Amino acid sequence: MSFALSNGYELWLNYDKISDDTVLKTYQNQLQSVFVEEGGATMQAIRKELEMGLGGLLDLEIRFESLPSSGNQLVVSKYGSLPKDFKEDINIDNLNSEGYIIKHIEKSGKDYLIITGKEEIGLLYGTFHFLRALKMHQSLDAMDAEESPKVDIRMLNHWDNLDRTIERGYSGFSIWNWQTLPDYIDQRYIDYARANASIGINGTALTNVNANALILTPQYLEKVKALADVFRPYGLKVYLTARFSAPLEIGGLETADPLDPKVIQWWKEKTTEIYKSIPDFGGFLVKANSEGQPGPQNYGRTHLDGAKVLANALAPHNGTVIWRAFVYSEHDADDRAKQAYSEFVPDDGKYPDNVLIQVKNGPIDFQPREPFHPMFGAMPNTPLMMEFQITKEYLGFATHLVYLPKLFEEVLKSDTYQKGKGSTVAKVVDGSLYNKKLTGMAGVSNIGTDANWTGHPFGQADWYGFGRLAWDPSMESEAIADEWLRCTFGNNEKFIKPVKKMMLESREAVVNYMNPLGLHHLFDTSHHYGPGPWVGNLSRPEWNPVYYHKADEDGIGFDRTKTGSNALSQYAPEFEEKFGNPKTCPEEYLLWFHHLPWDYQLKSGRTLWDGLGIKYQQGVDQVKQMINTWENMEPYVDEYRHNQVSMLLGIQLKEAKWWRDACMLYFQTFSKMDFPKEMESPENTLQHYQSLKFPYAPGIRPQWD
């Protein structure tokens, strides 16, 4: 079997000719012509996409004809523009402005496949759905889709700096070339917009949440406008990160106090300036009073005070403030996992209607596994926006194969119990639990200048899966993996079945070899590359791994019950009761909530110490199995990507062993117990692992001379 080499640039939007002759001939017969309604830039984008997609998949020149046609026809038209007799078979009452319907109908003995909706953007989303169906070899006769996104703002957060470095970026430099903007429009900007539209993403925050005020200056706003103009036909709105101290740094004011009239006026004028050049500007994303970033607390004010100033400036323009809840203070000795809840929940219901509080999926920081953040469900009168991390800061960077939609799904399906059983995080995020009018989901981007955009070929699945779950948080990660594999690699079941299984098991593997049984934040300092459970010398206690695992001669784990930090009290009573008892707490969260003795008996009958070693070894063994699976896939995938993934899996195995050996050797200094018989002997000494230094690990911004 031969394949064209692919460097992965086309993502899941490669439009190679359909290889199954029966499927190809059926589609060619069913799609003899295409009608695309006349319209604006979005309709032109639809026409271009169909020319590329149908031309490539069906290996023919597409005939665009008027409606009705002489033969089988694809019709892409707003509902209001359809012929009256076509409307009889279609009901759009349940669609929102971004929704679409795809329906097969017969009129006067002719077959039509209709893609329709209320607005042009819905037609674009429907077009990508249709092309995806072709790539998956789905029957057009049976096609009957009706979809509207369940979440309003579905956005990527780029942690890109203006010098093109990317904080926690592992796939090259930033794709935004500020030097050549606005005059040079890279094709990559257009393809970026296409890729996002194909999975329903409708917003992008271009710059790092550790913000630079220069992005709000006229020099850079001109460049931002150029990107916004490229993105607009694809329904992609631009957002900017607002540095709270911008009135001082670029505005010439002496303060950034949110209650100062001059500051209030400055933000109003700056916002108006932005909307004059970018009329569909989405709004501001703000990180304030967190990890050294300036904020309202610098002036004795609250997050509410800060959010109100920006919300009032944006309100006349229908813009949104997205205020991040990732806050923790070195002046607060309480459990870091509790601090965001303590700062935001008391002001529930006081935020303006155009404010979303953006909350990370867990209460610490994008760990391989965390319980859901207790704020979800605890603020019934304030819309909360989910923040997932697509880039793998704590999951092996872009060298480990870890299918993140499995993690996203786990969080979204978690039950908050805040309105009884079934009050899932997904229902909080999509607004259905508390009837929220404004909803959102953000993903911290894993996109860079690497040829394949995401470094690891399978990292594309995380971007893809985030978009699909932002569109519909109830989707199954297995179905998403199936879609992505078929659209990216093809439909051969001998490839799909084993690789899908590998993807679905990969997240659990990384938890096992990094942070099993509820351990968390064992990562080496600053760069978070590799294990560093021994680190305890950093200036802030909550930056040290020893703060989280609390290993001593008596045992290991963080007590968050009533006898410890009592973080469990921030959850619903049903959750607190279940997780507060080590006998009923799911073992995957055991050491997150409990400090237990080394000889504590697990459900397996083994000691906690043995259980840790067995889990670490299981993670290593799972990577070995992934390598074996991928080796067997050589006949079904092109040589370029097969070699690429093979080499990366080799790195993953080496680093999984490193995690196992370093962590177990360190924890053994407290347990004084032999390793379980199931665990392979460490390859080096503890002193060796502690001596390793990585001053140039990726993802940390270099300090220029």
From TrEMBL:
Classification via Pfam families: Glyco_hydro_67C, Glyco_hydro_67M, Glyco_hydro_67N
Residue ranges of every copy of the Alpha glucuronidase N-terminal domain listed in the record: 11-130
InterPro entries per record: A-glucoronidase_C_sf (IPR037054), GH (IPR017853), Glyco_hydro_67_aGlcAse (IPR011395), Glyco_hydro_67_aGlcAse_N (IPR005154), Glyco_hydro_67_C (IPR011099), Glyco_hydro_67_cat (IPR011100), Hex-like_dom2 (IPR029018)
EC id: 3.2.1.131
Residue span(s) of domain Glycosyl hydrolase family 67 catalytic: 134-453
Catalytic activity, reaction form: Hydrolysis of (1->2)-alpha-D-(4-O-methyl)glucuronosyl links in the main chain of hardwood xylans
Ranges of residues in domain Glycosyl hydrolase family 67 C-terminal: 454-679
Top class in the EC scheme: hydrolase
Keyword entries, A-Z: Carbohydrate metabolism, Glycosidase, Hydrolase, Polysaccharide degradation, Xylan degradation
Recorded family membership: Belongs to the glycosyl hydrolase 67 family.
PANTHER family membership: ALPHA-GLUCURONIDASE A (PTHR39207:SF1)
Subunit structure: Homodimer.
Name of this protein: Xylan alpha-1,2-glucuronidase
Organism: Flagellimonas aurea
